[in-house]
From TrEMBL:
Family: Belongs to the 4-toluene sulfonate uptake permease (TSUP) (TC 2.A.102) family.
Keywords: Cell membrane, Membrane, Transmembrane, Transmembrane helix
Annotated membrane topology: Multi-pass membrane protein
Spans through the membrane: 42-63, 75-94, 100-118, 130-157, 195-216, 228-248
Gene Ontology cellular-component annotations: plasma membrane
Cell compartment(s), UniProt: Cell membrane; Membrane
Highest taxon of source: Bacteria
InterPro entries: TM_pro_TauE-like
Main subcellular location of this protein, as a coarse class: membrane
Database matches in Pfam families: TauE (PF01925)
Name of the protein in its database record: Probable membrane transporter protein
């Protein structure tokens, strides 16, 4: 069988596209890449890979800093709530069996993508108390299943964050949740040796995709950026719906 027809090649394409989307929008890597977890031997091996890859992309975003701004007044309460959620989410996910883990990831992808499809979030979504609750939930989802980012993105958009401030806030938030999620899994002995095989196979396409997305983002106007972000998430939601139907049908 040709490598081009293998699940490994297919997931390389998925992680390339996911990283490119993250480079353009500042979010969405794990949400898109999680759609390809079925191509990997195990979701419990794949989730730590997604957390690690997302953390590396976050570091690259923050090191670049072009078009990135961090509003610490807005971010501090969200970060505290997100870290509390992450501390709870990781240990809960480690005890799940493979079938349940895949199903929960599918449902989380559907929910996050569906929320992100709201092009103009309602004003009530910008409530600060709601933002803290959403941050707690997203922290738990990221730590447990490496997905959920668009939920906090929707709150930031409703609060009036522009592209630079949204990218900066999400980079810090995701990075902190990724670190805590990986640390929790490490302490519980839930990071399997197979993760390093995934790093060797998919590290390069992930970095190449991120580089392509970052270059594209620099050339987009604010209006084009929003159209690309919402259009991409519409595709994710449609794919996630099909995946959920297939997963539930097999169950």
């Amino acid at each position: 069988m040709s490598f081009l027809a293998t699940p490994a090649f297919a997931f390389a394409g998925v992680t390339f596209l996911a990283a490119a989307f993250r480079g353009v929008t500042g979010f969405g890597y794990s949400l898109i890449a999680a759609l390809g977890l079925g191509l990997l031997p195990s979701a419990q091996v794949g989730i730590p890979f997604l957390l690690g890859a997302d953390l590396v992309l976050t570091a690259l975003l923050l090191l670049d800093r072009r078009g990135i701004a961090v509003d610490w007044w807005v971010l501090r309460p969200l970060l505290a709530a997100g870290l509390a959620g992450a501390a709870c989410g990781g240990p809960l996910a480690v005890g799940l069996d493979e079938t349940t883990a895949r199903l929960v990831v599918t449902v989380a992808v559907l929910g996050a993508a569906g929320v992100a499809l709201v092009r103009r979030p309602p004003a009530w979504l910008a409530d600060r108390r709601l933002g803290i609750a959403v941050a707690f939930l997203v922290g738990g989802l990221i730590s447990a299943f490496a997905v959920g980012g668009p939920l906090i993105s929707a709150w930031l958009l409703a609060s009036g964050a522009d592209r630079g401030r949204l990218k900066g806030a999400l980079a810090v938030f995701f990075g902190a949740a990724d670190i805590l999620g990986l640390a929790g899994r490490g302490l519980l002995g839930a990071i399997e040796p197979g993760v390093w095989d995934l790093v060797l196979l998919y590290g390069m396409p992930t970095l190449l995709g991120f580089g392509a997305g970052t270059r594209l983002s620099a050339r987009l106007s604010a209006a084009a950026w929003r159209r690309l972000a919402s259009g991409g998430l519409a595709g994710i939601a449609a794919t996630g719906l099909v995946q959920a139907i297939v997963t539930l049908g097999r169950g």
